Amino acid sequence: MSKKAERRWTVMVVPHGSGTSRAVELSQTVVKVLAGIGSVVALAFLVLGAAAISRGVNITRSRALENENRLLAEEVQRMRERLVSLTDTMNQFSQREQELRLLAGLTPTDASVQRAGIGGPAGAWSERDSLSALGSHGQAALAARVDIDALSRRADILVRSLNEAYGSLAKQRERLAATPSIMPTRGWISSAFAAMRVHPILHLARPHEGIDVTAKMGAEIEAPAAGIVTDVKWEEGYGNMLTLDHGGGVVTRYAHCSTILVARGKRVKRGDVIAKVGSTGLSTGPHLHYEVWVNGHAIDPIKFVMPDAIVD
Known about the structure:
Glucose Permease (Domain IIA), two-stranded antiparallel ribbon, 4 helices
């Protein structure tokens, strides 16, 4: 039995110019081989093209990442420079804080408390190991994070300390504002504070629990400190009398007034005009009888008259 004849193809090669056309006869086997070679070559070109494209993309991405890393590194450097400046500013605030605490009558912040803002960040945070593994840029970012945490802790300590100092200063200011410190009227002392003296009218020995300031009739009487008017009345011997409560157990009284210019419950401050000098009650002439009481005990008012230079 004869073999089946192999299929064959004839390819005509026709030149563009002058010349003889040629006929090339190809067997089926040759056609298959050529087709296989063409497929392999095409596949090779596809693979090489894809690899070239992928390499180009990777190069582009790498350059973009390098640019991003450069920008981030520059930003970290700028941030660290700012942190140095902030640290200097924080040191200046710390110095002012110590001075303010002294003015407020508080002890300076303990050195160990100040050092609470120095060192590594408190607690653990997940980015620490990741940043450490990123080389020099990661180390720089880690150092910046540590510095920021330290500044944050120092700022918290400063805020608490400053709030305490301001609170103490406010209390001192209120206390000083309510402490008698000026002579209520202009004149001269005609009778001093005494445990016992002879009354100029009654001629009886009795305590003189204040001072007498002789002044012209109608001279202004000023509040020697902030306080509240707690009593306005006529009292036998004292005539028109006014009482101020300054808080903290300190009370002042003003007797023999010709006129009282404030009503009960009125809040006054140092220097407010509250009455006028008179001669009401048992009096030999116009004068102010001025008393200072502390926790129920009469105190010499002269002890509460400060030099003008340090009144306010």
